């Protein structure tokens, strides 16, 4: 593992970074990624950073923050506090806006509902325990929703920990659990009905609208 990590780090600095183009044009839009050298692949892009992988190192991902975007130091601190836990990724390298992390495999709960995949109760319980573990380490689980948690082999995983230093109240996970136990389990789960993305996105927008209105009352 140490040898693989050293070789991957070498490839990041000698092969990936000299060729990669990474721009954050607007803070509310995903970063723009271009000119990715083979055999590197883009896994995803957020507002501040992009996540890439290399086929020769399937157990790792590389997260690279765009220039002048915030969050790197905070994310490093969150991983430091989390240490090693089966429901979370783990940080093996952090320097100059670059993180090398343990790769998590699975399907987001959002995509499980889209595909009609059954979400066992154990997945929800695993995520609950993982969030409590984070609280025990003076972290504040925040922004936990269907796209930030995954299911893999019937177990729950937490994907995005970038806001775990945010002390503000966030009820997204509690609301998702309420929907899971009172709507998903008794109605959707037995029939395994795939839900189109346009309906899921409509529900997501309605949820945002309702929570926004609630702040004013």
Automatic annotation (TrEMBL):
<protein>
    <submittedName>
        <fullName>Serine/threonine protein kinase</fullName>
    </submittedName>
</protein>
<dbReference type="InterPro" id="IPR011009">
    <property type="entry name" value="Kinase-like_dom_sf"/>
</dbReference>
<dbReference type="GO" id="GO:0004674">
    <property type="term" value="F:protein serine/threonine kinase activity"/>
</dbReference>
<keyword id="KW-0723">Serine/threonine-protein kinase</keyword>
<keyword id="KW-0418">Kinase</keyword>
<keyword id="KW-0808">Transferase</keyword>
